[in-house]
Amino acid sequence: MNRIGRLALVAGILAIALAVPIATAHLIFVYEAQATVKPVTPVVFQAGPDASAVSLTVTNSSNPQISLTIPVTNSSETYIYQALEVTVNAGSPYLYVDSCSYSGPALTSVELIVYPATAATTGSSPPSSPTGTITINFPSTGCTAPGYVQLTAGNTYYIDFLVEPSLPIPNGASSGTLTIYFGLSNQTPTVTVPPP
Question: What's the pTM?
Fold first, then answer.
């Protein structure tokens, strides 16, 4: 074979060798995967360690609702320790009382004392420096609760209730039912995963 023939053969082999990767470069591999992602609820309300003392019930919904039986006696105040527990999973929401209702012996106020679970004290006294308080007042009709408490993600909080009855209570000791609808503002939405 002459030199030109050899060069033509080498050029042909090189052309074939170069054509193979170019042809395979058009192959597309599709990988399909499914991922199960547990949604994160930004704020979760649940009964606290001493909730049974006041028959507390909790409903987690767009407006979380709690209902509790408040012991009302002729003492100047009753302290309900760690009745409600609030876990903040995301964001820094502001917790406030959206609305409330009460039936029972007259009350002057109910103070909601909010503090981190890590600052919980033993016994039945409030922590020395709570995160904040919300005071529910009882005018002649209904109840009002101005104010809010800012919560922080990654923390669990307890809410204690300081009940101040309107004295004297007729016919001795009794109890009342307080229902509170909580509101949350500046709330981070649930975590979502974008489609591929």
Answer: 0.72
